[in-house]
Amino acid sequence: MKELYASVDIGTNTAKLLIAERREGVLEAVFQRAEAPRVGRNLAATGMIAPESFQALAEALLSFSADIASHGAVLVG
Where on the phi/psi map is residue 47: left (φ > 0), alpha (ψ -120 to 50), or beta? Predict the structure, then answer.
C-alpha cells in the first residue's frame, strides 16, 4: 500500500499543495498544485485580509482537500 502524505503551504500570495509518496524512506512528489489567492494584498495598509482574498483562499483550501482525498493522502502540515 502506498504511503501518501500531503502538505499545504500558505504564503503571502500563493497557496501550494504537495502530495508525496514515501519510497524507501524518501519522499517523492506525485502531485503538486498552486493557487494565488493573494492574501497579502493591501494587508500592510489595512491590517486585514481582503474579503475577496479570504474567499479565494477558502476555495483553494477546499479544492486542495478534494485533491488530498482523491489521492488517499494524509495531511501532515
Answer: left
Kindly state the DSSP code that residue 54 receives in the 8-state scheme: H
Q: What is the pLDDT of residues 16-72, one digit of tens each?
A: 999 999 888 899 999 999 999 999 998 889 999 999 999 999 999 999 999 999 999
Determine contact, residues 56/37, Cβ cutoff 8 Å: yes
pTM score = 0.88
Three-state SS for 76? coil
Residue 5 and residue 73 in contact, taking contact as beta carbons nearer than 8 Å = yes
Tell the residue number behind the cell numbers 500531503, with chain if given: 6
